[in-house]
Amino acid sequence: MFWPNGLLKAPEACDDEDMNAVVGNEGTSGPDGNLRAILTWLLEGDPSIRWHVLADLVGASQDEIDAERAHVAAQGWGARLLAAQSADGRWADALYSPKWTSTTYTLLLLHWLGLQRGHPQAVAGCRQVWDGARFYDGGLTLAKTIRQPETCITAMLILLASSFGLEDDRLDPAVRWLCDQQLADGGWNCESIRSGSRHGSFNTSISALDALLQYQQSGGELRVSDSMDRGRTFFLEHRLCRSHRTGEVVNAAFTRFPFPPQWHFDVLRGLEHFRAAGAAADPRLGDAVDVIRRARRTDGTWPVHRAYPGRTWFRMEPAGPSRWATLRALRVLQWWDQDHQAHLTNSRSGID
Q1: pTM summary value
Q2: Could you tell me if 288 and 344 are in contact, meaning their C-beta atoms sit under 8 angstroms apart?
Q3: How far is residue 249's CA from residue 252's CA, in Å, rounded to a whole number?
């Protein structure tokens, strides 16, 4: 699919079957009729966008994906973030606050951009936050006002160490502690230690699930699949974003999906977890998928959503169509539609 200079062939060269693989069963009428232009537009973006497109939407070879991903550290947003790091390995001279320029949240953004595992600046930053955290028999906290282990912060540090390859003897105890904090309903809640809350929080639960998945995918030795299965069941029983009591969407903010998500849950982030985990496209996620479909603009892209309040290093996207939202929505819909098509085909073939 690539010209000799390493650039993606013009999407016009893709046949209809290739197009359907990107957008599922919706065909090429309506917004999907712009698919070729959308792919071209995505591939004109930052390296962090391009390598994800190559990996998730056009099926490039691993060598081509890795070559593009390497540019995250040298060009664009990733390079700008790395250039802002201090000589001691921190960002903004802070470990956790201010949001969103502290070391923890800058590393989270670099993780989402796809900075490659083992990058020395990321490892140095991870070392700063792990060594600066207070450690309580497995649990960690970086918050100055919280004097107990903090579930969300522990999850973030597990994710960062696993993503960037920090070797630390405290990692496995932190993972055990995080699994032990799982509540009877399958979720996690930062308030369970501080106030005794026994119902899972959507925000805390997605952070915990993402951390455990990253730990598993990075080769972690502890078995975490049972905890993840229970955590995903928590979301399925809530149809991803609905109250178990009223059936209403818990928070209207869940139907927005700014990038980066920071510590927040939203329906796109939730669906991304199910996709990344290779989970089945459970029908109970259908309402959330419909939210994503309805958010699509008439030109086939998805819009920029207002960022969470707080200081940032720079603004990645102006108001209007969002490459991040479009990339993320397309690959979630691809996963959803392909899984449903496979299920339909199997049903017609009599395969259980």
Answers
A1: 0.91
A2: no
A3: 7
